Request: fold
Amino acid sequence: TKQHGRNNFHFYQAGMGESQIQENQLVSAMHQALRNQEFCLYYQPKFSAPTGAIIGFEALIRWQHPEKGLLAPDSFLPCAEKYGLIIAVGSWVLDEACRQLAQWHAQGATHWSVAVNLSALQLAQPGLVAQVLACLEKYQLPPDVLTLEITETSAINNPQESASRLAQLKARGVKISIDDFGTGYANLLYLKALPASELKIDRAFIIDTDPGSQNTAIVALIIDLARSLKLNVVAEGVETEAQKDFFTGLGCDVLQGYLLGKPLPAQSVIPFFWER
Ligand code: C2E
Ligand code: CA
Ligand code: CA
Ligand code: CA
Reply:
């Protein structure tokens, strides 16, 4: 290690590089963030495509960092996943989203649902089913107002156990959504094996849906496939009127995107709803 030179010596001595040190700092900052309640959830509305009504919200985590300001999940979740901290963070997300939804229900919006993103590591936890059911019980929520969004790839490590956990949740009424569909490695048989109730078409397909683009044919095919598997179809990342019309025309059930509503802090959700 000494051949790396005097200046680098103290890094290598501890068996770690500079990026390792940064990761360690991020991990301890996230532990502190959990203790100090620096994480918060933003809520992005999901709309019924045929009626335009708000049907619920996707909870998206943010970190209100004391020095760096509001941080997006891409800047800290990969590290949380790598070091297992996503279990504690994800438990907090589930609890907070259910707590908030119960509050909105108490204010009269009893038809609203909430979707929570689940990481691969959370899905690999044997206690997941009990945890989710306990959380619904804690806030007196019927299971069908909770959707768990998983990605195609997150269930692949342990397909049988993941599928059986999801099936147990689905049997209790919790909805399972396949997020970012079309970007992973999953084949169609695998999709059939997952006990899903909803499929979210990845934004990558939605960006380029000009007439004549190959994406339009792919998207039409995905929607057909979802129909035959009796899955609801969500188009996410809808940014233009043309995209909205395109997906509504193809029979998409649910629309989500900046055009219709950006992720909002919890306290802005009810005012947003009344303004419409
Ligand atoms: P995702 O689950 O695919 O969430 C959609 C992302 O697209 C969100 O980014 C959302 O703000 C953004 N988005 C929504 N509509 C539009 C649009 O019209 N245009 C564009 N350009 N973007 C749009 P965000 O909040 O930064 O989240 C990024 C990813 O981080 C999420 O992707 C999800 O995979 C992950 N994530 C967020 N919160 C959680 C969480 O609580 N737990 C876990 N495990 N993952 C989370
Ligand atoms: Ca999602
Ligand atoms: Ca997505
Ligand atoms: Ca994504």
Observations:
- Strands lie at 39-48, 54-65, 69-71, 113-117, 146-151, 175-181, 198-201, 232-235, 254-255, 264-265.
- Residues 1-13 have pLDDT under 50 and may be disordered.
- Residues 202 and 261 are 17 Å apart (CA to CA).
- The first helix runs from residue 9 to 13.
